[in-house]
From TrEMBL:
EC assignment: 1.2.1.38
Gene: argC
Gene Ontology CC terms, in alphabetical order: cytoplasm
Active-site residues, as the UniProt record annotates them: 154
CDD domains xrefs: AGPR_1_C, AGPR_1_N
The name this protein goes by in its record: N-acetyl-gamma-glutamyl-phosphate reductase
The entry's keywords: Amino-acid biosynthesis, Arginine biosynthesis, Cytoplasm, NADP, Oxidoreductase
Superkingdom as given in the UniProt entry: Bacteria
Amino acid sequence: MLDTLIVGASGYTGAELAAYLRRHPEINIAGLMVSAQSADAGKIFSDLHPQLKGLVDLPLQPLTDVAEAAKGIDVVFLATAHEVSHDLAPQFLAAGCVVIDLSGAFRVDQAEFYTQYYGFTHQHGDLLKQAVYGLAEWNADKIKHTQLIAVAGCYPTASQLALKPLVEAGLLDEQQWPVINAVSGVSGAGRKASMTTSFCEVSLQPYGVFTHRHQPEISTHLGIPVIFTPHLGNFPRGILATITCKLKDGVSESDINRAFYNAYHNKPLVRVYEKGLPALKSVVGQPFCDIGFAVDGRHIIVVAAEDNLLKGAAAQAVQCMNLRFGFNETQSLL
């Protein structure tokens, strides 16, 4: 039995983590924590997330002393802001914990990336090199042997799961960059109230055009440049990514089917459609990424759908934990 701590437990992702971990037979939730300044400190977790009333009724403790909080803890999930994870992860690692970070603080091994896209100077270049990128289907072997897992972002998960089989099989004409248009529900912006995510204010619109931090994350781990445009949708949760690419001359639909089969035939949390394209209703509340595609000559459109809070965050984090400790990959997820 592993003792587990969730830091940043009051948010949407923290709630989904707690829901998965509380039914995991190998996990004991030893504590739920928030920052010492949080208005939620001292509250009962299930009062904030009543769907877990009677299931997870622990108090949200203020994190004031990392060394004390880490005592007896095997695994720490950081569902915290990027700068906060940047500061906390080294301390929990020093205490001997396995750290599973859901922020962007350790996803890209380029210090300048954080200055440009996250607005802070990264102080832990050694940990950037040690961290394993938590795209579970593609980095399982490395995940099994690391102390620091940087869980892939929500948009990057859907985008890379859709594109990687084609890239790895050498099927794309790389002279034409893949164009990713992705729409996310407002829960991706977090639980804190904001005018831009208020129900009456939200309207389908693009944001972060040419400047969104997930574009370099996607390009870095795919190994090819992409154009990525995120959109905010007026629905609570889910991501739908529609990706347009050009195929190399001579690539057939059977080549594409083979690439996706080779990548995912034994990956239970990626479902590749034999016909048709996925919709959000197929994945919301589920830990899957669903993928479908259509081909016209040398052009392919790949569509990926996921729940941004689950496969795009909490479910993938638990999947990474399962891989790291040798549990069944889908334990507590299905």
